[in-house]
Amino acid sequence: MKKACSATDPLWYKDAIIYELHVRAFADSNGDGIGDFQGLISKLDYLQDLGVTCLWLLPFFPSPLRDDGYDISDYCAVNPSYGTIDDFKQFLDAAHQRNMQVMIELVINHSSDQHPWFQRARLAPPGSPERNMYVWSDTDKLYEGVRIIFTDTEKSNWTWDPVANQYYWHRFFSHQPDLNFDNPAVMEEVLNAMRFWMDMGVDGLRLDAIPYLVERDGTSCENVPETHVLIKHIRSVMDAEYENRLILAEANMWPADVRPYFGDGDECQMAFHFPLMPRIYMALRQEDRLPITDIMAQTPDIPPTCQWGIFLRNHDELTLEMVTDDERDYMNLAYAADTRMRINVGIRRRLAPLMDNNRRRIELLNSLLLSMPGTPIMYYGDEIGMGDNIYLGDRNGVRTPMQWNSDRNAGFSRADPARLYFPVVMDPTYGYQSINVEAQQSDASSLLQWTRNMLALRKLFQVFGRGTLEFLAPDNRKILAYIRDYQSEDGTHSETVLCAANLSRFAQPVSLDLAKFAGRQPVEMLGYVPFPAVTDQPYPLTLAPYSFLWLELQPIVSNVVEPTEQQMEVPEP
Ligand code: BGC
């Protein structure tokens, strides 16, 4: 008997809207300055009302927290700062009751050096099963030439351990030794952890840093064939024992290198589209759609059960690993003029500051997030336009407490402000007194209300999560225009949407070739406003600066929509 989960549709992730959050940053229920599961439970109504359908929790396991919890010292427990296993179960049930799925992290490339496995490994004799939980070598010349990921902190992927008298391998921080997947005991432990959380009803797992699981001499030690064998195994165990669960690959790679992580539909159902993200920012700054159309042209088809995960920002730096050197220089100049805004190969800023707090630009980028192919993944706080704190170390500037209201500590915690895990943002533009949930809830034109409306609109259609993509090629390259199209399998339902986005700071005219849709009735989707019918002639549109249009191309002209009562009340100019 397979164990069921909260989702009944096996492809639920295709229609999902994922919200990424850290328990520590969300809401503190006991006044110790650290967010916790009880705090998160108290905010589930907010998340449900916002309209997100799946919560992705950053690592909440016991950890020395030297990498925000990605340095795990126990895979099958909850960090006591955030609560207990019972608190987690209570949270999971409460999320499920609100029809929200829950995805957690399975960080299997590495553990913390404080994990008992590593502590035992150091003391165990070389070659013993205990020692072999990790990757050791007598020389730091093995796997020479493999790139370093955390370029700001690490000089080598090897660190000498004086207790073991050997070097150990780590692709990230030196306190995060890589697990050794050539030892079958490691896979057993991974499956134990997976079962531990899936038995409770967790719906999805984000597989962290998946390209680096296996090392092979003479290669880049990335994406090696053996890694795919391992992932297929994890997937097959998951499918054999559990129903409707999801694995999402974190593979920060070019599209062609990510493609194998979907396998033949037998590896990860989802993978992040890393290269698209910086190109959205580039297209905006260059006022040219080419970076977006170009990367999508390089994006291979994926199996029908699979899905891209698309995002604008997350808990890490805005990574610039998947761009050329010139593009990286451009992005740094355009978006991170102050070097404090940079870290490793990326930019550590939030969405609103990257957009210079320009509401139209923020909305434009969100319109792409919500209408490009894939499942959108939002980062907590971006729905209210939270700012960052570039004076905090590592990537912590984008991990500050959620801003709930203008009370002490932004309503996040009752603790003495000095006790908070990180200070709340306090500058005059993005500080909690100006940017907070409560204020935006009572402001009908706030970013929060806008986001809510957009999520509600997206959820009325399946085309965004499941439809095909076809770019139009109007002469004016400041306009990004594409058709999303969805036909249900049984042929009874079809949805066609034209999306047009003006990447320019000035108004733009555009003429679209919609001849193949001649006879269709475009209806603007936010206001349900009919536009002139499509003919075989070029279709002219004018777009205000940074504006976008979503037009549903309804089938028959005679079906002209009636204006709603609200629209009829709008006085004539
Ligand atoms: C996570 C990072 C983390 C790294 C190493 C990444 O994939 O997203 O936040 O620092 O793994 O654990």
Description:
- With 573 residues, the protein is α/β, with parallel strands linked by helices.
- It folds into three domains: 55-109 and 184-390, Glycosidases (TIM Barrel); 116-169, Oligo-1,6-glucosidase, domain 2, CATH 3.90.400.10; 467-555, Golgi alpha-mannosidase II (Immunoglobulin-like), CATH 2.60.40.
- 26% of the residues lie in helices and 17% in strands.
- The protein has helices at residues 23-26, 37-42, 44-50, 85-97, 116-123, 184-200, 225-241, 255-258, 276-286, 290-297, 325-335, 351-354, 359-371, 437-441, 447-459, 463-466, 565-569, and strands spanning 18-21, 54-57, 101-106, 136-137, 158-161, 166-169, 204-207, 246-249, 270-272, 307-311, 318-319, 342-343, 346-347, 375-379, 468-471, 479-487, 494-502, 508-512, 521-524, 529-530, 539-543, 548-554.
- Helix 9 (276-286) runs antiparallel to helix 10 and helix 13 (359-371) runs parallel beside helix 15 (447-459).
- The longest helix has 17 residues, at 184-200.
- The chain starts with 17 loop residues before the first strand and ends with a helix.
- The mean pLDDT is 96.
- Bound molecules: beta-D-glucopyranose (BGC).
- Beta-D-glucopyranose is lined by residues 67, 70, 172, 176, 208-209, 250, 315-316.
